[in-house]
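[User] Once you have settled down, look closely at the record that follows, and write a paragraph about the fold.
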Amino acid sequence: MQGLASSEALTFTGKEFPSLGFFVESINDVKNAGGKYWILYRNGAQSKVGASSATISPGDVIEWRYE
């Protein structure tokens, strides 16, 4: 995400929580609201860990879904 953000193709905000890691609060100005949140998916499955703890391998398909 940081690589894309530096190219201006993506903007995001979030907070770092000591016990949970980085929590994404908005992507491209769409903020968590109304019971919807940005959820990380890896290879079609919801990540069981936060974005800063997720291990990404070459060939993985990464999605952020607003659910």
Q: What stands out?
A: The two ends are 19 Å apart (CA to CA). The chain has one domain: 2-66. The CA atoms of residues 30 and 66 lie 9 Å apart. The beta strands are 12-17, 21-27, 30-31, 38-42, 45-46, 62-66.
